[in-house]
Design a protein that fits this description.
This is Lipoprotein. It comes from Actinoplanes couchii. The structure is a single chain. By secondary structure, the chain is mostly beta strands. Helix content is 2%, strand content 44%. It has one helix and 16 strands. The strands form five sheets. Strands 3-9-6-7 form a four-stranded antiparallel beta sheet, with no helix packed on it. Strands 10, 11, 12 and 15 form a four-stranded antiparallel beta sheet that branches. Strand 13 and strand 14 form a beta hairpin. The protein is globular, with a radius of gyration of 20 Å.
Length: 278
Protein backbone atom coordinates (compact mmCIF):
# COMPACT_ATOMS: atom_id res chain seq x y z
CA UNK A 1 0.00 0.00 0.00
CA UNK A 2 1.78 3.12 -1.22
CA UNK A 3 0.78 6.52 0.02
CA UNK A 4 1.93 9.86 -1.37
CA UNK A 5 2.44 13.02 0.65
CA UNK A 6 -0.28 15.59 -0.09
CA UNK A 7 -1.37 19.03 1.00
CA UNK A 8 -5.02 20.01 0.86
CA UNK A 9 -5.73 22.99 -1.37
CA UNK A 10 -9.52 22.92 -1.39
CA UNK A 11 -12.56 20.59 -1.29
CA UNK A 12 -11.64 17.51 -3.34
CA UNK A 13 -15.02 17.08 -4.94
CA UNK A 14 -15.36 20.48 -6.62
CA UNK A 15 -14.50 20.50 -10.33
CA UNK A 16 -11.60 22.79 -11.11
CA UNK A 17 -12.54 25.40 -13.65
CA UNK A 18 -10.75 24.98 -16.91
CA UNK A 19 -9.20 21.57 -16.18
CA UNK A 20 -7.50 20.11 -19.20
CA UNK A 21 -9.69 21.93 -21.71
CA UNK A 22 -8.36 20.77 -25.05
CA UNK A 23 -9.48 21.94 -28.44
CA UNK A 24 -6.58 23.67 -30.18
CA UNK A 25 -6.06 23.48 -33.91
CA UNK A 26 -4.82 19.99 -34.67
CA UNK A 27 -4.22 20.27 -38.43
CA UNK A 28 -5.23 22.10 -41.58
CA UNK A 29 -7.16 20.89 -44.56
CA UNK A 30 -7.73 22.49 -47.90
CA UNK A 31 -10.64 22.36 -50.33
CA UNK A 32 -8.44 23.70 -53.13
CA UNK A 33 -8.50 27.21 -51.79
CA UNK A 34 -7.54 28.68 -48.44
CA UNK A 35 -6.45 26.19 -45.79
CA UNK A 36 -9.00 25.69 -43.03
CA UNK A 37 -8.13 24.75 -39.45
CA UNK A 38 -9.36 21.39 -38.17
CA UNK A 39 -10.37 21.72 -34.53
CA UNK A 40 -10.03 18.65 -32.33
CA UNK A 41 -13.23 17.29 -30.83
CA UNK A 42 -11.35 16.42 -27.63
CA UNK A 43 -12.83 18.17 -24.59
CA UNK A 44 -11.22 16.51 -21.59
CA UNK A 45 -12.85 18.69 -18.94
CA UNK A 46 -15.19 17.69 -16.13
CA UNK A 47 -18.69 17.49 -17.69
CA UNK A 48 -21.71 18.94 -15.95
CA UNK A 49 -23.34 16.45 -13.59
CA UNK A 50 -26.79 15.09 -14.37
CA UNK A 51 -27.34 14.30 -10.70
CA UNK A 52 -25.53 15.28 -7.52
CA UNK A 53 -24.42 13.14 -4.60
CA UNK A 54 -26.94 11.20 -2.57
CA UNK A 55 -28.11 8.36 -4.83
CA UNK A 56 -25.67 5.47 -4.88
CA UNK A 57 -27.96 2.45 -5.21
CA UNK A 58 -27.07 2.06 -8.89
CA UNK A 59 -23.54 1.04 -7.90
CA UNK A 60 -23.65 -2.51 -6.55
CA UNK A 61 -21.05 -4.55 -4.68
CA UNK A 62 -20.81 -7.79 -6.68
CA UNK A 63 -18.13 -9.59 -4.64
CA UNK A 64 -15.84 -8.98 -1.71
CA UNK A 65 -13.29 -10.86 0.33
CA UNK A 66 -10.37 -10.48 2.70
CA UNK A 67 -7.41 -12.17 4.39
CA UNK A 68 -5.10 -11.40 7.27
CA UNK A 69 -1.54 -11.19 5.95
CA UNK A 70 0.81 -10.86 8.89
CA UNK A 71 0.02 -7.53 10.54
CA UNK A 72 -2.23 -6.36 7.69
CA UNK A 73 -5.84 -6.78 6.57
CA UNK A 74 -5.91 -7.31 2.80
CA UNK A 75 -9.39 -6.43 1.47
CA UNK A 76 -10.91 -6.40 -1.99
CA UNK A 77 -14.24 -5.88 -3.73
CA UNK A 78 -15.73 -5.61 -7.22
CA UNK A 79 -18.32 -2.90 -7.95
CA UNK A 80 -20.68 -2.75 -10.92
CA UNK A 81 -22.52 0.26 -12.31
CA UNK A 82 -26.04 -0.88 -13.15
CA UNK A 83 -27.19 2.48 -14.52
CA UNK A 84 -26.90 4.28 -17.85
CA UNK A 85 -24.83 7.08 -16.31
CA UNK A 86 -21.17 7.41 -15.32
CA UNK A 87 -20.54 7.21 -11.57
CA UNK A 88 -17.98 9.97 -10.95
CA UNK A 89 -15.62 10.17 -7.97
CA UNK A 90 -17.14 7.41 -5.91
CA UNK A 91 -15.89 7.13 -2.32
CA UNK A 92 -15.20 3.55 -1.24
CA UNK A 93 -14.51 2.87 2.44
CA UNK A 94 -13.18 -0.44 3.80
CA UNK A 95 -13.80 -1.33 7.44
CA UNK A 96 -12.44 -4.47 9.11
CA UNK A 97 -14.36 -5.55 12.21
CA UNK A 98 -14.45 -8.25 14.90
CA UNK A 99 -17.44 -10.46 15.74
CA UNK A 100 -18.94 -7.64 17.84
CA UNK A 101 -18.78 -5.23 14.91
CA UNK A 102 -15.93 -3.12 16.33
CA UNK A 103 -13.06 -2.01 14.13
CA UNK A 104 -9.85 -4.00 14.29
CA UNK A 105 -7.84 -1.51 12.22
CA UNK A 106 -4.95 0.38 13.78
CA UNK A 107 -5.86 3.95 14.71
CA UNK A 108 -2.96 5.34 12.69
CA UNK A 109 -4.35 3.76 9.50
CA UNK A 110 -7.95 4.91 9.77
CA UNK A 111 -7.21 7.92 7.56
CA UNK A 112 -6.30 5.45 4.79
CA UNK A 113 -9.62 3.59 4.80
CA UNK A 114 -11.30 5.63 2.06
CA UNK A 115 -10.33 5.94 -1.59
CA UNK A 116 -11.93 7.61 -4.58
CA UNK A 117 -12.76 5.71 -7.76
CA UNK A 118 -12.70 8.40 -10.49
CA UNK A 119 -15.15 6.82 -12.96
CA UNK A 120 -17.31 3.73 -13.28
CA UNK A 121 -18.84 3.55 -16.76
CA UNK A 122 -22.38 2.29 -17.42
CA UNK A 123 -22.48 -1.49 -17.10
CA UNK A 124 -18.81 -1.66 -16.13
CA UNK A 125 -17.23 -3.49 -13.19
CA UNK A 126 -14.20 -2.15 -11.31
CA UNK A 127 -11.78 -3.63 -8.80
CA UNK A 128 -11.20 -1.79 -5.54
CA UNK A 129 -8.68 -2.88 -2.94
CA UNK A 130 -7.19 -1.78 0.34
CA UNK A 131 -4.56 -3.11 2.74
CA UNK A 132 -4.50 -1.63 6.24
CA UNK A 133 -2.54 -2.22 9.43
CA UNK A 134 -4.41 -4.17 12.10
CA UNK A 135 -4.75 -3.06 15.71
CA UNK A 136 -2.14 -4.46 18.08
CA UNK A 137 -4.64 -6.74 19.83
CA UNK A 138 -5.53 -8.35 16.48
CA UNK A 139 -1.88 -8.66 15.55
CA UNK A 140 -1.29 -10.54 18.83
CA UNK A 141 -4.30 -12.79 18.26
CA UNK A 142 -6.26 -11.36 21.21
CA UNK A 143 -8.96 -10.02 18.86
CA UNK A 144 -10.06 -11.55 15.57
CA UNK A 145 -10.66 -10.08 12.13
CA UNK A 146 -14.18 -11.47 11.60
CA UNK A 147 -15.49 -9.62 8.54
CA UNK A 148 -15.11 -6.63 6.25
CA UNK A 149 -17.69 -3.94 5.51
CA UNK A 150 -17.48 -1.99 2.23
CA UNK A 151 -19.38 1.29 1.83
CA UNK A 152 -19.81 3.29 -1.39
CA UNK A 153 -20.96 6.87 -2.02
CA UNK A 154 -21.19 8.34 -5.52
CA UNK A 155 -20.26 12.02 -5.72
CA UNK A 156 -21.93 12.80 -9.07
CA UNK A 157 -23.59 11.10 -12.02
CA UNK A 158 -22.44 12.16 -15.50
CA UNK A 159 -23.69 11.54 -19.02
CA UNK A 160 -21.73 8.80 -20.85
CA UNK A 161 -19.96 11.15 -23.29
CA UNK A 162 -17.09 8.81 -24.20
CA UNK A 163 -13.39 9.27 -24.85
CA UNK A 164 -13.76 12.65 -26.53
CA UNK A 165 -14.74 14.04 -23.13
CA UNK A 166 -12.36 12.08 -20.90
CA UNK A 167 -14.93 9.39 -20.09
CA UNK A 168 -13.53 6.65 -22.31
CA UNK A 169 -12.93 3.04 -21.31
CA UNK A 170 -9.65 2.28 -19.53
CA UNK A 171 -8.71 -1.38 -19.16
CA UNK A 172 -5.88 -3.00 -17.18
CA UNK A 173 -4.73 -6.60 -17.58
CA UNK A 174 -2.09 -8.49 -15.60
CA UNK A 175 0.88 -9.66 -17.68
CA UNK A 176 0.81 -13.44 -17.27
CA UNK A 177 3.70 -14.77 -15.21
CA UNK A 178 4.82 -11.32 -14.03
CA UNK A 179 3.55 -11.64 -10.46
CA UNK A 180 6.02 -12.15 -7.62
CA UNK A 181 5.32 -12.68 -3.91
CA UNK A 182 7.86 -12.90 -1.12
CA UNK A 183 7.18 -15.05 1.99
CA UNK A 184 6.20 -11.93 3.98
CA UNK A 185 3.39 -11.01 1.56
CA UNK A 186 5.14 -8.23 -0.33
CA UNK A 187 5.51 -8.37 -4.10
CA UNK A 188 4.85 -6.90 -7.51
CA UNK A 189 3.25 -7.53 -10.88
CA UNK A 190 3.04 -5.89 -14.29
CA UNK A 191 0.03 -4.53 -16.15
CA UNK A 192 -0.85 -3.66 -19.73
CA UNK A 193 -3.22 -0.68 -19.73
CA UNK A 194 -5.27 0.65 -22.67
CA UNK A 195 -7.02 4.04 -22.60
CA UNK A 196 -9.72 5.14 -25.04
CA UNK A 197 -9.49 8.77 -23.90
CA UNK A 198 -8.39 11.37 -26.43
CA UNK A 199 -6.21 13.22 -23.90
CA UNK A 200 -3.79 12.32 -21.14
CA UNK A 201 -5.57 11.99 -17.80
CA UNK A 202 -4.26 12.17 -14.22
CA UNK A 203 -3.44 8.92 -12.40
CA UNK A 204 -4.94 8.38 -8.95
CA UNK A 205 -3.31 5.00 -8.48
CA UNK A 206 -4.00 1.38 -9.43
CA UNK A 207 -6.40 -0.85 -7.50
CA UNK A 208 -5.90 -4.61 -7.26
CA UNK A 209 -8.16 -7.46 -6.20
CA UNK A 210 -6.45 -10.77 -5.40
CA UNK A 211 -8.16 -14.09 -6.12
CA UNK A 212 -7.27 -17.67 -5.25
CA UNK A 213 -7.15 -20.52 -7.77
CA UNK A 214 -10.93 -20.99 -7.49
CA UNK A 215 -11.53 -17.34 -8.40
CA UNK A 216 -12.73 -16.24 -4.95
CA UNK A 217 -11.60 -12.80 -3.73
CA UNK A 218 -9.04 -13.16 -0.94
CA UNK A 219 -7.78 -9.56 -0.59
CA UNK A 220 -6.78 -6.39 -2.33
CA UNK A 221 -4.49 -3.37 -2.46
CA UNK A 222 -4.27 0.18 -3.78
CA UNK A 223 -0.95 1.35 -5.19
CA UNK A 224 -1.45 5.04 -4.49
CA UNK A 225 1.64 6.23 -6.38
CA UNK A 226 0.70 8.11 -9.60
CA UNK A 227 1.47 5.94 -12.61
CA UNK A 228 1.97 6.59 -16.31
CA UNK A 229 -1.09 4.50 -17.13
CA UNK A 230 -3.54 7.28 -18.01
CA UNK A 231 -1.81 8.54 -21.14
CA UNK A 232 -3.44 8.43 -24.56
CA UNK A 233 -3.35 4.82 -25.73
CA UNK A 234 -2.15 3.46 -22.37
CA UNK A 235 1.10 1.74 -21.39
CA UNK A 236 2.58 -1.77 -21.38
CA UNK A 237 4.49 -3.53 -18.64
CA UNK A 238 3.60 -1.01 -15.93
CA UNK A 239 4.91 -2.31 -12.61
CA UNK A 240 2.77 -2.23 -9.47
CA UNK A 241 4.54 -2.82 -6.17
CA UNK A 242 3.12 -3.99 -2.84
CA UNK A 243 5.59 -2.70 -0.23
CA UNK A 244 3.65 -3.92 2.81
CA UNK A 245 2.43 -7.47 3.60
CA UNK A 246 -0.64 -7.32 1.34
CA UNK A 247 -0.67 -10.40 -0.90
CA UNK A 248 -2.36 -13.47 0.65
CA UNK A 249 -0.36 -16.69 0.41
CA UNK A 250 -3.25 -18.33 -1.48
CA UNK A 251 -3.42 -15.60 -4.13
CA UNK A 252 -3.04 -16.69 -7.75
CA UNK A 253 -1.42 -13.53 -9.10
CA UNK A 254 -2.32 -14.30 -12.72
CA UNK A 255 -5.98 -14.03 -11.65
CA UNK A 256 -5.52 -10.56 -10.13
CA UNK A 257 -8.13 -8.04 -11.27
CA UNK A 258 -6.84 -4.50 -11.74
CA UNK A 259 -8.34 -1.05 -12.30
CA UNK A 260 -6.31 1.99 -13.34
CA UNK A 261 -7.79 5.09 -11.68
CA UNK A 262 -7.82 7.90 -14.28
CA UNK A 263 -9.29 11.31 -13.46
CA UNK A 264 -9.38 14.85 -14.86
CA UNK A 265 -7.00 15.96 -12.12
CA UNK A 266 -5.51 14.70 -8.86
CA UNK A 267 -6.29 17.21 -6.10
CA UNK A 268 -3.63 17.62 -3.45
CA UNK A 269 -5.21 16.30 -0.28
CA UNK A 270 -4.16 15.61 3.29
CA UNK A 271 -5.35 12.15 4.37
CA UNK A 272 -8.10 12.36 6.99
CA UNK A 273 -10.77 9.97 8.22
CA UNK A 274 -13.57 9.88 5.64
CA UNK A 275 -11.55 11.66 2.93
CA UNK A 276 -9.89 9.81 0.04
CA UNK A 277 -6.16 9.28 0.43
CA UNK A 278 -5.54 8.95 -3.30
Amino acid sequence: MSRGRHTRTGPWWLPVVGILVIGLTAACESDGGEAKPVVSACRAAVPSPVASAGESSGLRILEQGYSQVGTMASMGAVLRNETGKVAYRTLVTFEAVNAAGRTVLHESFRRFQTQVVPTVLPGASVAVGNASLLAEATQRGDDDLDSVVVKVQVSQWLDPLGGDHGLGKVTAAVVAGSGERSPDGKGSLELDVASANCANMASRGIALVFRDKSGAIVGGSLDNVPHDTCRVGGTTGEQVAMTDPEIPAVADLDRTQATAYCDFDRPQILPAVGAPYN
